[in-house]
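Example record used in the benchmark description.
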Amino acid sequence: MIWVQRADERYRGGDEAGTETRHAFSFSGFYDPDNVRFGMLAACNEERLAPGAGFSEHPHRDVEIVTWVIEGELAHEDSTGRRTVVRPGDVQRLSAGTGVRHMERNAGTAPLRFVQMWLTPAEFGGEPSYDVVRGIPDDTPYAVPRAEAVFHVRRLPDGTRTALPLAPWVYVHVVRGTVGIAGERLGPGDAARIDDAEGLDAVAVGDAEFLVWEMHTEPVYG
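Model output (structure tokens):
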């Protein structure tokens, strides 16, 4: 089963000057009980920040935050003492654990665009941790063990295809170009939620870049 959310169907936000956010799931002031999460994925936000704009210091707890920069430079600072600049091709992960504070801003002179994805950990607690992989190669799995999930980046030339992971929950977010999946065409900002993906391919229509989440569990409460 595949469900497609188009870019213009996302919730629009951005409370701070020079910021624009497009939410795929219920987030902040937007709440839809039928659109709270998919597998372990609780947020997939497309962020656009003008030069110098950003998010002032704020707290997180018990969440895994993975960020993919599309264009520009993202400056990150957190209460563990980490200070980094994340650029296109880098994967950033912040495990909030029992609690961490961080801030993010556009560190460059050009517009910044990035995708930030939040996952619920399989177990709460633990020490906060941080990781950046510089220039991750195409189709190199990036595991997020606390969320029992795997992140994939796919960049395909026109007309080529790649198999999607075999998993109960697969989430695809298109960054550039057009991608065909099971008869659906997805453009930039479009996303597909796929239940029990088996034998599905993604085909590039023109050069394409897209992000894939492979998830084998979902949160259990109580």
